[in-house]
Structures are given as structure tokens and as C-alpha cells.
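Lecture 7 notes. Example A: sequence first, then its C-alpha cells.
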Amino acid sequence: MGIIEKIKEIEAEMARTQKNKATEYHLGQLKAKIAKLRTQLLEPPKGASGGGEGFEVSKYGHGRVALIGFPSVGKSTLLTMLTGTLSEAASYEFTTLTCIPGIIHYNDTKIQLLDLPGIIEGASEGKGRGRQVIAVAKSSDLVLMVLDASKSEGHRQILTKELEAVGLRLNKTPPQIYFKKKKTGGISFNSTLPLTHVDEKLCYQILHEYKIHNAEVLFREDATVDDLIDVIEGNRKYIKCVYVYNKIDVIGIDDVDRLARQPNSIVISCNLKLNLDRLLARMWEEMGLVRIYTKPQGQQPDFADPCVLSAGRGGCTVEDFCNYLHRSLVKEVKYVLAWGTSARHYPQHCGLSHILNDEDVVQVVKKKEKEDGGRGRFKSHTTGPARISDREKKAPLKT
């Protein structure tokens, strides 16, 4: 029996099982088994030489956004309108067969936009090159899920389910669970608050399913069984997602208003070029890019080419900014002067832990090198040794 057949068999058993207090331990074990099998499904087959044909493109710019959706929802048209890169669009499905990159120039930054082939139901099991598409989405900073506003609402649930099956968690934060494997000592289970979804016995059963018999587990929030399995697996990617409803020009105003009020959703029309500026603003807001302008000592700030930081790529502190400029700069920093919304007064003397905001101006002051030979009139101009005993003795005079 293959892995896919095993997963379907366990899912059928979970559908048959009633959910109550007596069966929650059994359902928890089944969820752990499915998570293990899906991880095996993503691993390359043993003995395979090299990776298969994928469409991974090299990272470029200050951020990466992936377009994901069913075939013929307007992804290629949206890429062409936002970036100017020509992506073939036609009235039949699967027009795009590979990954087509484009660059959005917005607020003095460069954002890479990837047009991916349409995915279908069963993409997490490899149908329609779905695994390669989702692998590219995992390396992105933001996912734009393009949906057809005239189609049923079930498309959104299908796509979310396919992405979650391969370890992508959309618009979620990592659970506050501390987990560490140990060599000896058994399983230590603790929590800082009352738990309603998981108890000690269920945690033990899930860990034994993974053949873990010595570990330390600490719950800092009321997490579910799925959250615990995600922490044990350790290969989940938590990523932001914006649901983009295209083709709003073919539905009524009441439906447009209902879709626009849903969380993390925005409505557009590529045909009539409606609301594209708001889509770019929403992308900028979700990515959280921070532009920092440098100011040399005694000169005006350089507003032409900002340094772009983000919380997802390193962080936004002064130390991260120094590392962005040069790796060795942190050791030479004496203090930093900051102007902008992060400063309480202008200029503010900052340390390395100061968090910078968008469009701040920063001046880095380096430590002065210490002079070895003293200062002023005490400075020695000789290059010889300082101690008399270290000097070379002259040869004795010939008599």
C-alpha cells in the first residue's frame, strides 16, 4: 500500500470516528500518523540523484510575493499589469506552465512577483506539478491567493487545505510551545495555564507515535493537538496570505461588498483596472518593509537609495542595519544618531537594540582608533623599541 492510500485510509477512519471525550486520544494518534506520512510524501525518493525539474528562480529585490490560484483566475494578467512583464494569458486553462518572475517598483523598493502555474485539488499529492508550485510559495515572504469572485466560496477552502497539507500555515503565528528532545529523563510535561484541548496522556501518546521517549514539553498557550504536532515536526512555514478576488465586474455590488469585508481579503478587476493601487498598498503593509536612509557625518542624508529591512528577513534593529551595511561594522560602532518616527527627539543617541521605523534617517559614528605612541608632544616618532634593554647593542669600537 502506498503512502497516499495510507493517508486516505486514515482520513476515512477519522471521518467514521465520533468526536467525544473517549475518542480524542485515538483521533490525536491518527492526526500524528497523517502528519508523519505527509512528511514522508514530501521527501525525495531514496536513491534519487539530484532534484527534479522545478521552477525555482533566484531571489531578487527586497521581497518576494507568489501568486497562487486555480487555472484561469487572472494571475498572468495581474502580473502583466503590476510589473509590465509579459505573461501569456488565454481563455483556456494551464496557459502558464512554468514560473514567470516580474519586478514591482514601489516606494523606492523592488518586489519580486512570481506568476506560478494554476494548482488543482490534489496538488499536495503531486497532481499537476503541485509540489513544485507549493515549494516556490514556501520561499516567498507573502502569498497572494487569486480567486474568481464569480465562482463558489469552496475554492478558497480547497486551496487552503492543499497548502496546509504540505506544511504552509497561512495567517497564523507559531504556537507558544517549548519542545526539546533529551537523551534521558523521560518526558517532562508542564503548562503555564489550564489546557482544554491537550492533556498529559494525549501528549505522551503523540510523542510515542514519533518514537520520542525523552523530551521536555512546556505549553505557554492553550494550543490544540495540531499545534503540538506542528512543533514536533518542526518543518512548518508560517506565512502571510492575502485573498485577492478578481473579476468583480461580473458580479453584483452586494457580493462585492460582502467579499471586501472578509478578513485578509481585497477585491480587484484586472479587466477594468479597479483597485490595483489598493492591492499594492496592502502588499506593502503585509510585508512590513522598512526603508532606512543613511547620513554621512557633516553631509545631507542620501534619499536616493534606501537600505530596506524587514522583520522576516533579519529584523529591523540598529544591529541588523549595521549587519546589512557590513558584517564587521557592529564591532566598530560607538553610537548611532537617529531621526524619524522611532526617535523621541532629533537626533536621538541609540544603541544596537533600538528598533527602527520606516523612513528613518540613521548616522553611524564609529570608534576612533587608539594611537599606540601617545598624543601631542608625547608622541614618539621613532620606530625603535621602547625599552633600552630591547635595543640592539652596537659593536664595540676597534682599538
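Example B, a different protein, same format:
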Amino acid sequence: MSRSRCDGLLAKVDFPLYTLQTLTNRHVIVAGGGGASNTGVANGFEIFELSHNGSKFVAEEVMRHETGPNVVMNCSVRNVQNRTYLTAGQESHCQLYKVNIRMVDAAEMRRGSFRAENGLVRRRRRTVSENDNISKMDNNCNTTEKRISFEMRPSDSVQTDFSDDPLQRVVSISPDGNLMATGGVDGIIRVWNFPQMQLLFELKGHTKELDDLDFSPCSSKLVSIAKDGFAHLWATKEKAAPLLQLTCQPPNGTKFLFRRCKFAMVEDKPNEQRMFTIANPLARSGKQRGLLQLWEPNSGTLQRSVVCNEALSALTVRDDGRFVGVGTMFSGSVDIYIAFSLQRVLHVKSAHRMFVTGLAFLPVRGYGPSITSRSEAALLSISVDNCLYVHALPQRSTMPAWLAIVLIIFVLFCTFCACSYLGI
């Protein structure tokens, strides 16, 4: 399925967006900013609650947290022992936030207020998609329905990069919530215990700055990619040499560099795992076509590879391992693939006006009630155009059971007639 610029605009904020995470099955956090320079562009987070009104997805802002002069370039979210933590890359440091979740009356939220981290009450701004539902919400403002509210409190902060011009480029929290890995310009992976934020050991194998990190679903492995062109797989128990070193394997022999990497569980097989990477040509001349590749992470075997129409900038996998999403560098397009076959099932051309900076599927195994819709999957995307979009994959049509039965009877009848005619 292919379509042009999507109509799934959920929200437009007042700062460029660089990172995107889901907090629950229906809550998403976006972050970014204008940097330390005095441009008047804010730095911080915004949390939105998503729902489906019967015809499309809509978003409602829940809270906003500003981070002063520190732009948020990357972040990771994890629930540990019924507590939700968020870690955010802010220049050379990683800032830990404790996210308090509480239930409040829906009427209180709809009056437009929320409790910020400093105890002050700030006005909630309506989003683009919410304006379509104002009258419906106002008619139900006296309801006793409970809604989830969030409170973000800054906690520990640690320096994670020690280069001459230090910058944390990526952070990832392990699925079991016990470890955090960070990478930056100095090319060193630092593994921390979590949420204590104490350095355990350093992994040195890359010669250039890190681009991405991700833990395996069982938290026993860590994949890293850097601008030196290599992907390394590490054991997370202790400091050691890489288990595997991978290089991109393009179909035509052209030199490619990895851009992003993601582990994923195999659907309905929780003890098995896959690994996905995206890569772009090293040469910048001519039309660049990116690669989406599927790997077997234990042996490092490349299982499947597809050539995309342009260079790629973002990668994500749904939490059940069924779908893969990619975003493009130049046209701001978004694609959804089936994970095991890498068959493209949705293409949204020019979803954003600029390159895609972050992607996340609405989870199906996350915290809280799921969103009811007619979609088989819903992919969220952000960009430096300040916009949050949703791209819904419609339920793919299947043959009704009654039609299958009729066809079987018809085939049997035709077979019987043919056999009778031939005297068999």
C-alpha cells in the first residue's frame, strides 16, 4: 500500500523533535529543542495521550517539561519494579528522570491544567488533532472517568562522554531494567547499573563515534554501531572483546555504513530473537539507496536484505516483533515492513517536510489498555519539522470463512463432475 503525504498529524510543538518513546500503550513522549543558544526555541519533553475517535487517531497533550538550556537529543524509557524511569542525553551528560504515574479525574485534565515537576500548575495546550473533538469532550466534561497523569522529577545526572567536544549520542536501558548503555563521540560504550547510574565497565572496540546501541530482548547481549563501519555484538555480563564483528553486506559491493540497529523478539517465539540494521552508501554522489537488513544475531548470518528508494535515517521494531518501520533521509517518507519477510506493506511518501528523526510503533504488550482501532499497526514518526504523525496500517483483507467453504464445495463438485465425465 502506498499513499502520499499522510493526514495523520497528531500534534505540532514549538521546538524541533529528535527522539520519541512510548510510555504506555496509549502515551507517547517526544523530546528535542533549539539548543543552548539564545534563540527563543524551548528545550524539553511533551507527553501526549493518544486515542481513536472511530475514524482516526487523535492526541491530547498531558504535560510538558522544559529542560532549560539543554536540548534532548536521545532518550530511553523503562519500567523497573513498577516505577517508570526516563534517561535523556543532554550534551555530555545523561539525566535520569523519575516518572510518577497517577490517576486523576478526566474532568480535571480537560479543564486544561496539569501538575508540573516544580509543583506549579501549567495550562495544557490543545493539540492539532484534539481540536476536532473539543465539542465531544466538553459534552462529557462531568464524567467520573479516570485518566493517567504524569509527573517528571529530575534525579541523578552522570557524564557519559569525555571527548574534547563531548556529546552523548545514544542511550539504551536493558529490557530487564538492570543495565544502561551509553555511547558518544569518544567511541566508548559505557555500561552502567540501573537505576543507580554507577559505571560498571567500558567496552572499547570502535574507533569512531557511536551511532546506535540496543539490548537484546533477554538483556544478555548488546549491539553497537559506529561511524567506523562496524557493528559489534557484546555480552553484557562483563567487560570483554566483542562476540561478533559485522560489516554491511550490500548486494552490489558498494561501500555502506550502518546507521541504526535494533534487536527484536521473534513473534510467538519469546526465546528467539532477530536483529535489524539500516545502512546508507558511503559515497554521497548520485541517488543514494539505503538498505534494510535482517540478521541472525547468534551467528552473524545475514538472512534478508532489501534495497530502499533512498537513504534511511530511522529504524524501529514493534514490541511483539511483527513489524519493522523505517524513515528516510531526504523526502521524510515512512515505510512499514513485515519483520520475517521484509515485505513492504505501507509506504507514506513525504510524511514529513524534512528527514525523519524518530519512529515508534504503538505497543501491543505495553502498560495499560490498548487503543481500539481498525488498524493492524500504528507507527508514530517525528522530525525537525516539529510534527508528530501517526501512520495506520489498515487490516489486510482476508477471505471470509463462508466464501472459503463455498469454494471448497465448488472445487469438489467440479472434480466429481470431471471424474464422472471421464468415467474414472
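Note on Example B: The longest strand covers residues 146-159. The helical segments are 106-110, 134-139, 401-422.
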